[in-house]
C-alpha cells in the first residue's frame, strides 16, 4: 500500500526545500518538490539604478556568491552594448573559475559526503590500513598511519563527549552505507582538510574583490580592482604570485584528493549509476570566454542543448524559447496565461497552500514558491552534468579526456552518466577541468600587465545620460549549479523589469500545465527506500543536484516602488 | 629562542586547562593563540586571557541552534571562512552546534527532533543564532521550515534562549527582503521576537571574526557586550569606516580617484567620488578586514556600500553616487573645493596633507552619529 512521506527541511543544501514522496513496495512512485521560502528581490529592484543591480542580486545566494553579479552585469552590458577590457574578462574568468572549484569541493565533502560516508564507522577503522588505502590511490602527503590515528582520536574525543552537535541523530549504521571503515576514516580526514582548504583558496576572491562571500568588485563595464605592476595599491607582481600559489594549492587538492576519493568511493555505489536519471534533457549556456570578442563562439564550456539523452546531437540554444510556467507554483499571471518569457515575466504571489503549521501540502494544486522553467515546453536539467555532457558531445578535448578517463576507471559506459552517480562524477570532472584551466587566465592577465595594458573598466557608457531611452539585455553564466540567465529591461536610466531564471529553478521546479515533472521530481521516481523513517536515498539523489533554493525563489512583481533618496547629512 | 610574549601568554592560563585541551586533541599553542586573538578582538587587556581560557575550558560547550530564514546562507559561508578559531575547531571544540541546516547530517524529522531536544534540555541556557529576516505578512507563509512558519519557530527558539545573536544585516534589521517595497513584510529578529535578548552583528555578510569574538565575550563575562543604539557591539561597530580608513590621508589631502582604473585609483587614492559610503558607516572592516585579514572593499578599489547600516539598501543607494557634502579637513571645505585648489599644483597637496594632519584633532566637526 502506498504511503506518503515528508522530508522537510532537506538539510545540507542552500535554502529551504521540502520533498514529499509516495512510496510503494520500497520504491518511490511519485514525488513533489517544494520550496518554502520567498523574498521578492526582483520587485525590490524595479526603479533602481541598473549599475547597482549586481549588488542586490548577488544576495540571491551567499553560497554561489559572485554568480548573480556576473549574470547581472552581463545583462546590463548586453542591453547597453558595452565592450569590456580584456583584463576584466580575465579577472572575471579567474573569479568564476575558483568559485566553481571551491564550491564543488565544499559540496562533495561537506554537503554530499555524509550521504555515502558513515562517520561512526570511521571510529573502528585501522589507521594502518587506512594509510595503505590512501597511499594506493594518491600521492597526497597527508596519508600516514599516524596522521589518520590523530584524526580518529580527535573524532573519538568528540564522540566521547556524548554531544554530537551537527552529526547527531543522523542515519549512521543505515544499511545503505557500503564503504569499509578505512574508507570512511579517510573521508572524514578529507572532510576536515577540505574545511581548511576552502577558506584558503577562496582568498583569491579577497585579493581580486575584497572579500568572500559577496565580493565587491564587479562593475558594469569591467571590474573595480586596479592592476598596475608599479603600485602597492593595485594588483601587482606580488599579488599575482599569491593568486598563482593559491591556484596551485586548489589544483593539487582536486587532483590528489577530490578525484581519487571520488574514484575510490564510486565503485561501492555503482548501483546508483542506474538510479536518479531524471528528465534526460540538458541545457548549458556555456561560459569562460577564451577571447574578448564578446561573442559565444569561443567559450571554454560550449553552449548547447541535449534532448532525450541523445549525445549525437547537440542543438543550439535560443533564449527566446525559454518560459516560466506557474500552473503549480504559488503565483498567477495577470492575463491568466500559464507561462511567459522572462522579458515579460511577472510574479503575483498567490499562496493557496495550507496555513502553517501543517503536515502535508496540497500536492494536487499549487505547491511551491519555485516556478517551472521550460525550454520549448520541455523541462531541462542544468548543472555540471549538463555542462560536461554538452562539452563532451561537442568534442571538447579536455571534457572528452576527463570523461573517458573516469568512465574507464569505473568500467562503465556513457549511459552511466545519466544518473545520481553520473551527476556526482560530472561535478568532479567539471571541477578538475576548471582547476586545470584557471592558471592559463592568470598567465594571460600577467602577460597583459607586462605589456603595459592596465585598463580594467570601460567608462564610455557609465553615465546614464549616454544610454538609450529604452534597452533590454540577456546575461548568461554557467554557475557551479548550472545555467543561469538574467533578463533586464531598462527605461529612462532605471530598471523597468528584472527576471532571473536560475539553475535550481530549472531543477527544483514543480509540475507544469501539461503535468510534466521537474528534474528533481522525475529523478526520484524509482529510487529505492530501504527504511521510510530514514529516507537516506532521497537525500542522495536530491543532493546530487546541489540544491540552492534561495537562488531559485526571488521573484515578485512590482507594486510601484520608488528609489529612496540618499539621506542628507 | 626565548619568546617573552609566549611566556606571558602561557603564564596566564593554568597548566590544568592546557592539559585538558591537549587531551581533547587541541595543542596548547593553538589554544593559547585562540585565547590571545579573542582577547585582542574584544579590545581587552592581555590580563583577561586567563579568564577567557577558563570560560572555554572543559566540555562546557554551549549548545547553539543556528536558524536560517529569509537569508542567502552568506553568513554561514562567512562562518566557514573563520580563522580564529576555524569552523572545524568551533564545530568540534568550542561550541556544540546542535542545529544548523546547512551543515548537519540529519534531515527532516530527525533534525527537528535534535533541535527540540536542545530547546527542552537547555532551556534558558543555549545560544540562538539567526540568519535572514522573518516575513510577517500573510500569516508567515513566505518562509516555513518543517511546515511551521519562521515567525513561530523564532518565537519559540529565541524566546527560550539565553541570548540571540542576529548574524548579518537581514536578521539584524530586515536587510534586503525588507528593502522597499518590502514585499513579504520582512522584519529583524528583535522586531519579530520583542522580548528576546538580541545582539546584532550586521554586515553583508557579517565578518566571522566578530561572531566568534561576540560568543567568547558572552562565555567569558556571562553577558552580551555593550552596544550602540542599533544593538551592535561597540567593540566592532564603534567607529566609522572613514575614521580608520587606510586611504583617509588621501581624503584629507584632496586626492580622489575619479574613475575606476585611472592613475589615482591605481595609486590607492580616496574613493569618495566613486560613491564610497565609508563616511556614513560604522564597522571595523578597515582594521580586521576579511578572509584572515586578506582585504576589504576599499583596499580592493571599490567604495564601501554601507552594508552594516540599517536599511542600507534604501538609504545608501545609488551605490555609485557620491555622498553629498562630506566635510573635509574643515567644516566648510568639501571634496570639490579641495580638489579644485589642488588641481593647480601638486605641491599644494603635500602642503595640505600636513595641514590636515595638524587639524585631525578637530575631526569631530565631520559626520558624527549619535550613539
Describe the protein's architecture and organization.
The complex is a heterodimer of chains A (569) and B (371). Chain A is α+β, with helices and mostly antiparallel strands and 569 residues long. Chain A has one domain: Orthogonal Bundle (Cytochrome-c3 Hydrogenase, chain B). Helices cover 39% and strands 14% of the residues of chain A. Chain A has 17 helices and 17 strands. Chain A has helices spanning 41-45, 53-58, 67-80, 86-112, 119-122, 127-137, 145-160, 181-201, 203-209, 237-265, 384-393, 397-410, 420-450, 503-508, 519-524, 536-544, 549-552; strands spanning 3-7, 17-24, 27-35, 218-219, 222-223, 282-284, 287-289, 299-301, 304-306, 322-325, 331-332, 339-340, 348-349, 372-375, 470-479, 482-491, 494-501. In chain A, strands 1-2-3 form a 3-stranded antiparallel beta sheet. Chain A has a 3-stranded antiparallel beta sheet with strand order 12-10-14. Chain A has a 3-stranded antiparallel beta sheet with strand order 15-16-17. In chain A, helix 4 runs antiparallel to helix 8 (181-201), helix 6 crosses helix 8 (181-201) and helix 11 (384-393) crosses helix 12 (397-410). Chain A is globular, with a radius of gyration of 24 Å. The termini of chain A are far apart. Chain B has 371 residues and is α/β, with parallel strands linked by helices. Chain B folds into 2 domains: 62-236, 3-Layer(aba) Sandwich (Rossmann fold); 241-353, Irregular (Cytochrome-c3 Hydrogenase, Chain A, domain 2). In chain B, 41% of the residues lie in helices and 9% in strands. Chain B has 19 helices and 9 strands. Chain B has a 5-stranded parallel beta sheet with strand order 2-1-3-7-9, sandwiched between helices. In chain B, strands 4-8 form a two-stranded antiparallel ribbon. In chain B, helix 3 (28-41) packs across helix 4, helix 4 (49-55) crosses helix 11 (208-221) and helix 18 (335-344) crosses helix 19. Chain B starts with a helix and ends in a 12-residue tail after the last helix.
Amino acid at each position: 500500500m502506498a504511503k506518503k512521506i515528508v522530508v522537510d527541511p532537506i538539510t545540507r543544501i542552500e535554502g529551504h526545500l521540502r520533498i514529499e514522496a509516495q512510496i510503494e513496495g520500497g520504491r518511490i512512485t511519485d514525488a513533489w518538490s517544494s520550496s518554502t521560502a520567498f523574498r521578492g528581490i526582483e520587485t525590490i529592484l524595479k526603479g533602481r539604478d541598473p549599475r547597482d543591480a549586481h549588488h542586490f542580486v548577488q544576495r540571491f545566494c551567499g553560497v554561489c556568491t559572485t554568480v548573480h553579479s556576473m549574470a547581472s552585469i552581463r545583462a546590463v552590458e548586453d542591453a547597453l552594448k558595452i565592450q569590456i577590457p580584456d583584463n576584466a574578462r580575465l579577472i572575471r574568468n579567474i573569479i568564476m573559475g575558483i568559485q566553481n572549484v571551491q564550491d564543488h569541493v565544499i559540496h562533495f565533502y561537506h554537503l554530499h559526503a555524509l550521504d555515502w560516508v558513515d562517520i561512526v564507522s570511521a571510529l573502528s577503522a585501522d589507521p594502518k590500513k587506512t594509510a595503505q588505502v590512501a597511499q594506493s590511490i594518491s600521492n597526497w602527503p597527508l596519508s600516514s598511519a599516524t596522521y589518520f590515528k590523530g584524526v580518529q582520536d580527535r573524532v573519538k574525543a568528540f564522540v566521547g563527549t556524548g554531544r554530537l552537535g551537527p552529526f547527531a541523530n543522523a542515519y549512521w549504521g543505515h544499511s545503505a552505507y557500503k564503504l569499509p571503515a578505512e574508507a570512511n576514516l579517510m573521508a572524514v580526514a578529507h572532510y576536515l582538510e577540505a574545511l581548511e582548504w576552502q577558506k584558503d583558496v577562496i582568498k583569491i576572491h579577497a585579493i581580486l574583490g575584497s572579500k568572500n562571500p559577496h565580493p565587491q568588485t564587479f562593475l558594469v563595464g569591467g571590474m573595480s580592482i586596479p592592476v598596475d605592476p608599479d603600485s602597492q595599491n593595485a594588483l601587482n607582481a606580488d599579488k599575482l604570485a599569491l593568486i598563482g600559489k593559491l591556484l596551485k594549492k586548489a589544483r593539487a587538492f582536486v587532483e590528489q584528493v577530490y578525484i581519487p576519493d571520488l574514484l575510490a568511493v564510486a565503485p561501492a555505489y555503482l548501483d546508483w549509476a542506474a538510479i536518479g536519471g531524471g528528465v534526460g534533457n540538458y541545457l548549458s549556456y556555456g561560459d569562460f570566454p577564451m577571447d574578448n570578442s564578446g561573442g559565444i563562439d569561443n567559450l571554454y564550456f560550449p553552449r548547447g542543448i541535449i534532448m532525450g539523452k541523445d549525445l549525437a546531437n547537440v542543438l543550439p540554444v535560443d533564449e527566446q524559447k525559454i518560459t516560466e510556467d506557474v500552473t503549480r507554483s504559488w503565483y498567477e499571471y495577470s492575463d491568466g496565461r500559464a507561462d511567459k518569457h522572462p522579458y515579460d515575466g511577472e510574479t503575483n504571489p498567490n499562496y493557496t497552500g495550507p496555513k502553517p503549521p501543517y503536515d502535508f501540502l496540497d500536492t494536487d494544486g499549487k505547491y511551491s514558491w519555485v516556478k517551472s522553467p521550460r525550454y520549448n515546453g520541455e523541462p531541462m536539467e542544468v548543472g555540471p552534468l549538463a555542462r560536461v555532457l554538452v562539452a563532451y558531445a561537442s568534442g571538447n578535448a579536455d571534457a572528452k579526456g576527463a570523461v573517458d578517463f573516469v568512465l574507464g576507471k569505473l568500467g562503465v559506459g556513457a549511459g552511466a552518466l545519466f544518473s545520481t552517480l553520473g551527476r556526482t562524477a560530472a561535478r568532479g570532472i567539471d571541477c578538475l577541468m576548471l582547476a586545470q584551466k584557471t592558471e592559463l587566465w592568470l598567465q594571460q592577465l600577467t602577460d597583459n600587465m607586462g605589456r603595459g595594458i592596465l585598463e580594467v573598466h570601460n567608462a564610455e557608457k557609465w553615465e546614464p545620460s549616454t544610454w538609450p531611452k529604452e534597452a533590454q539585455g540577456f546575461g548568461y553564466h554557467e554557475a557551479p549549479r548550472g545555467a543561469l540567465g538574467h533578463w533586464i529591461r531598462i527605461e529612462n536610466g532605471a530598471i523597468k523589469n528584472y527576471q532571473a531564471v536560475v539553475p535550481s529553478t530549472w531543477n527544483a521546479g514543480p509540475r507544469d500545465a501539461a503535468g510534466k515533472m521537474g528534474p528533481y521530481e522525475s529523478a526520484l521516481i524509482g529510487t529505492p527506500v530501504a527504511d521510510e523513517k530514514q529516507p537516506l536515498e532521497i537525500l542522495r539523489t536530491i543532493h546530487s543536484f546541489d540544491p540552492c533554493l534561495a537562488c531559485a525563489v526571488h521573484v515578485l512583481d512590482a507594486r510601484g516602488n520608488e528609489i529612496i533618496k540618499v539621506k542628507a547629512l | 629562542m626565548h619568546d617573552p610574549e609566549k611566556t606571558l601568554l602561557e603564564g596566564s592560563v593554568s597548566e590544568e586547562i592546557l592539559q585538558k585541551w591537549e587531551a581533547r586533541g587541541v595543542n596548547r599553542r593553538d589554544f593559547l593563540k585562540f585565547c590571545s586573538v579573542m582577547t585582542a578582538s574584544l579590545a581587552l587587556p592581555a590580563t583577561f586571557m586567563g579568564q577567557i581560557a577558563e570560560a572555554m575550558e572543559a566540555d562546557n560547550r554551549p549548545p547553539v541552534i543556528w536558524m536560517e530564514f529569509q537569508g542567502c546562507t552568506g553568513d554561514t559561508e562567512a562562518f566557514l571562512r573563520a580563522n580564529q578559531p576555524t569552523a572545524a575547531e568551533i564545530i568540534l571544540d568550542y561550541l556544540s552546534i546542535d542545529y544548523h541546516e546547512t551543515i548537519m547530517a540529519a534531515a527532516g524529522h530527525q533534525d527537528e527532533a535534535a533541535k527540540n531536544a536542545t530547546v527542552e534540555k537547555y532551556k534558558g541556557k543555549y545560544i540562538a543564532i539567526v540568519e535572514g529576516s522573518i516575513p510577517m505578512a500573510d500569516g508567515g507563509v513566505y518562509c516555513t521550515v518543517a511546515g511551521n512558519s519562521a515567525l513561530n519557530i523564532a518565537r519559540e527558539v529565541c524566546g527560550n534562549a539565553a541570548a540571540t545573536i542576529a548574524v548579518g544585516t537581514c536578521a539584524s534589521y530586515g536587510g534586503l527582503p525588507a528593502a522597499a517595497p518590502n514585499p513579504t513584510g520582512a522584519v529583524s529578529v528583535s522586531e519579530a521576537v520583542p522580548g528576546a535578548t538580541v545582539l546584532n552583528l550586521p554586515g553583508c555578510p557579517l565578518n566571522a571574526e566578530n561572531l566568534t569574538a561576540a560568543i567568547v565575550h558572552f562565555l567569558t563575562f556571562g553577558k552580551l557586550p555593550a552596544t550602540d543604539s542599533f544593538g551592535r557591539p561597540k567593540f566592532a561597530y564603534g567607529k566609522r569606516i572613514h575614521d580608520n580608513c587606510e586611504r583617509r590621508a588621501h581624503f584629507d589631502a584632496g586626492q580622489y580617484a575619479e574613475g575606476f582604473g585611472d592613475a589615482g585609483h591605481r595609486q590607492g587614492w580616496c574613493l569618495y567620488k566613486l560613491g564610497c559610503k565609508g563616511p556614513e558607516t560604522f564597522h571595523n572592516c578597515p582594521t580586521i578586514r576579511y578572509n584572515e585579514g586578506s582585504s576589504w572593499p576599499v583596499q580592493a578599489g571599490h567604495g564601501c556600500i554601507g552594508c552594516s547600516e540599517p536599511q542600507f539598501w534604501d538609504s545608501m543607494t545609488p551605490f555609485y553616487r557620491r555622498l553629498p557634502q562630506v566635510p573635509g579637513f574643515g567644516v566648510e571645505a568639501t571634496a570639490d573645493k579641495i580638489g579644485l585648489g589642488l588641481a593647480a599644483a601638486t605641491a599644494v597637496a603635500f602642503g595640505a596633507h600636513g595641514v590636515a594632519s595638524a587639524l585631525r584633532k578637530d575631526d569631530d566637526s565631520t559626520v558624527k552619529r549619535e550613539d
